[in-house]
Amino acid sequence: MPARFITFEGIDGAGKSTHLEAVAQRLRDGGDTVLCTREPGGTPLAESLRELVLNQPMDPMTEALLVFAARRDHVHQLIVPALARGETVLCDRFTDATFAYQGGGRGFDTAVLRQLEHDVHGTLQPDLTIWFDLPATLAAERRGAARSPDRFEQQDIEFFERVRRGYQARAQAAPHRIVRIDASLDRASVWRQIEGALESRQW
Ligand code: TYD
Q1: For the whole model, what pTM was predicted?
Q2: What separation in Å is there between the alpha carbon of 191 and the centre of ligand 1?
Q3: By Cβ atoms counted within 10 A, which residue in 106, 111, 156, 189 is the most buried?
Q4: Sign for the pseudo-dihedral over CA of 116, 119, 123, 125
């Protein structure tokens, strides 16, 4: 069984969660055992930390440490064991989100984030990251006024433009791992780009 680790990234409102489900279905149809999970979260402890990160006021360093604490538990309890069993793991956000949101959005020191990345999950990196990229104004329109916004969704357009630039920087540094999808297009066009990325890897 091919153990693959695929992550889904983008600013809030980019539409990644719908497509994550479609990728899971496609890979299951191809015979993979697929585990879908998310960050912050994925284990009972990490889900408790998610509640805090999304809802409690805190400074950027506390925020960065909590998302990495959640990740540590998630990687060790869920992701690594699933990959060891030969499963395909699809994760809604991973460390690129920390560089984008805490690094880009909040302006937290990316050198510290790089050290934490190394200490928390060593050589484990996604085999593929699907990055849903679109202008922050369009993402805000898509988010609309639905449900009660969390601490991140309450941020202004400038915050999300900084997050977007954070993703851009990560993508430039890892062009083979991170595939940029133009998420400003309609759903069918977005899906075609994702299929292209999977097909080019013969997945
Ligand atoms: P999100 O994945 O968008 O879930 P939902 O669709 O339920 O809103 O929400 C998670 C939020 O957490 C998102 O706004 C980005 C933020 N986040 C960080 O700030 N840093 C991180 O490292 C991760 C994984 C997420």
Answers
A1: 0.97
A2: 22
A3: 106
A4: negative
